[in-house]
Amino acid sequence: MAHAEAVKDVRPATREEMSQARLPLAYRDSCAHLLIPLNRCRYEEYYLPWKCENERHSYEKCQYEEFKLRVAKMDELRAAKGGARSN
Q1: pLDDT given for residue 1 in this prediction
Q2: Which of 3, 13, 62, 71 can pair with 32 through a Cys bridge, CB separation 3.0 to 4.6 Å?
């Protein structure tokens, strides 16, 4: 199963969960369900860089996959406009 499909199978974090976890608004995206346990792990492990590696990798991979989807969407929009940029 591709990661993009796996992300869709996971239940996204609710607004209440994100508020309880005190996530900044900028981080409340489709990967927030992975950031909440990562931040909890970081807090419990005193932010040691060699701890919480699995959680960090999962979160960063989700962010990368989301970025690739945004780039693909932008490429589609540019192709529809004949390659013209919006700025």
Answers
A1: 40
A2: 13
